[in-house]
Design brief:
The chain contains eight helices and two strands, in the order E-H-H-H-H-H-H-H-E-H. By secondary structure, it is mostly helical. It has a two-stranded antiparallel ribbon. Helix 2 packs parallel to helix 7, helix 3 runs antiparallel to helix 7 and helix 4 runs antiparallel to helix 7. Belongs to the PRPH2/ROM1 family.
């Protein structure tokens, strides 16, 4: 049975392979560390923005899987660097001979699987992020007034901080505030006829106004912020409703957060791609180095040419051998047949 993808490795190519693997392993460890930093940063951002994401949004799974993949890549790089360096010394390599086998299996199965899964999540989750932000921001706007309701008392502060930090207003624009009651009922005068008329004119009994919170105001505007009666052309003679950017943030928070999180996810995806490619190169190199040194008894400068390979035989032969071995292992042992009794000897006739 011929080995799969054999490669003849004389002495000098073996040494260069070990030295190159040492460098690639450290690059893999660096890429794994960067993956940990990027995924951790994205996870922290999602934790801060959890109020504006629907609880059912699966986007948080991306940094969690990327954290696990980065940890495995970091460990693979560190162990690979140690093994490749030790392979240059016949006295240091024997302890690593027992480590390389489990490392290759774990790095291929766990590390490769996690990296592929994380890359798939990077490509598949932007749609779910869009839906999660749409639902989460709508809920946050509706609870802006509930400053004394348990579970929602921080919604106003968080939404104000969001609009100030990301220079946004409302879900898709400042007019979103016209359709929700964002003024708490405790600050409304029930004896004011205007308040009564506004509440009675709404089917849901909400106090709706054509105004926005202070956090929507653009501090770069040369004039004082205009927050109320934004739909009345006669209320502010010098204000043009067609150019609200002179006074308010025009971008909605949905677009601002979507762009921010997608940018972080794109950076993480690029880091995962580089990590995946480096991990493939390191694992392939370690496998060729391992099989080549096994043929030389673990001595890199042994006499003769060594042959490295990925598998000792073809895939078909390996599956057949494994099947036969499994069949032999599970085949019940035949019961021992009772020893046959020797036939009685016939008596000799008397003389």
């Amino acid at each position: 049975m011929a080995p799969v993808l054999p490669l003849v490795l004389p002495l000098q190519p073996r040494i260069r392979l070990a030295q190159g693997l040492w460098l690639l392993s450290w690059l893999l460890a660096l890429a794994g560390g960067l993956t940990l930093l990027c995924s951790g940063h994205l996870l922290v951002q999602l934790w801060h923005l959890s109020t504006f994401l629907a609880p059912s949004c699966p986007f948080a799974a991306l940094p969690q899987v990327a954290l696990a993949a980065g940890t495995v890549a970091l460990g693979t790089g560190l162990v690979g660097a140690g093994a490749s360096r030790a392979s240059l010394d016949a006295a240091q390599y024997p302890p690593w001979r027992k480590v390389l086998g489990p490392l290759l299996v774990a790095g291929t199965a766990a590390g490769g699987g996690l990296l592929v899964f994380a890359l798939g999540l990077t490509l598949a989750l932007p749609g779910s992020l869009d839906t999660g932000l749409e639902e989460g921001l709508g809920t946050a706007l509706a609870h802006y007034k509930d400053t004394e309701v348990p579970g929602h008392c921080h919604a106003k502060r968080l939404l104000d901080e969001l609009q100030l930090r990301h220079h946004c207003c409302g879900r898709h624009g400042y007019k979103d505030w016209f359709g929700v009651q964002w003024v708490s009922s405790r600050y409304l005068d029930p004896s004011d006829q205007d308040v009564v008329d506004r509440i009675q004119s709404n089917v849901e009994g909400l106090y709706l106004i054509d105004g926005v919170p202070f956090s929507c105001c653009n501090p770069h505007s040369p004039r004082p912020c205009l927050q109320s009666r934004l739909s009345d052309p006669h209320a502010h003679p010098l204000f043009d409703p067609r150019q609200p950017n002179l006074n308010l943030w025009t971008q909605g928070c949905h677009a601002a957060l979507l762009g921010h999180l997608q940018s972080l996810a794109s950076t993480l995806g690029s880091t995962l791609t580089v990590t995946f490619m480096l991990q493939i190169l390191v694992l392939l190199g370690l496998r060729y180095l391992q099989t080549a040194l096994e043929g030389l008894g673990g001595v890199i400068d042994g006499e003769g040419e060594a042959q490295g390979y990925l598998f000792p035989s073809g895939l078909k032969d390996m599956l057949k051998t494994a099947w036969l071995q499994a069949g032999v292992a599970h085949r019940p042992a035949p019961e021992e047949a009772p020893a046959e009794e020797a036939p009685p000897k016939e008596g000799l006739p008397e003389a």
